[in-house]
Model the fold of this input.
Amino acid sequence: MPAPAPAAQPPLLALEGVGMRYAMAGKEANVLEGVDLALADEELVCVVGPSGCGKSTLLRIVHGLVAPTSGRVVFEGRQASGVNLACAMVFQSFALLPWLTVLENVTLGLEARRVAPAERRPRADRYIDMVGLEGYEEAYPRELSGGMKQRVGLARALAVEPRLLLLDEPFSALDALTSISLRKDLLDIWASADVPVSTVLMVTHSIEEAVELSDRVVVIAGRPGRVAEILPVALPRPRDRKTPGFTAAVDHIFSLIV
Done:
């Protein structure tokens, strides 16, 4: 008698029928509706869609910063409630406190999570070095370029050692060369066995960026936003934007959005 097949691993994260409505100026705005999405462990998934389709709201729901008005979020097999401390977020606007140094900004999340003081500095130093900012520990945000500020934001998120890393258009405010460098760094960090982050969920306006980075691309379309398609990207890494397969994936996603 053959041995039974191993049970399929449950997803790390599952969104089940998630919807979001806001009250605005006395009226109800329906932002998301009926979103179903599952993320496996060790995946890098990008979410794309037009402005106003609810992409950033989706990230905030995953993190537990806002609660959905319908549906539910399941993390590691349990319904999530409140802020999920197994997640950390990197913001488009850097979200650094200007009166704090690089080191102080990175340790801020560790203090909030009550990491022992003796552990904060070595852990912060490790991730500051990892994102290429060694020697800038005492610098203030005003002394840094946009790319360096985003590296601080990434180090701050990594320092709390999340299982799931959330990124909200992290490269959109940066110049092209800096974006290329940071995308490569993100892939290296995600693939590293020395970093606890196993899964990445990233929102981007750039279809090319999504195809370059992702295992799967989630296309959100319409108002309210719904999942139009989830497209697997089977191209080998590093990905060449000039190959026919890359171009075909970009064109297909573009056709879904417009």
Observations:
- Residues 176-191 form the longest helix (16 residues).
- The mean pLDDT is 92.
- The two ends are 53 Å apart (CA to CA).
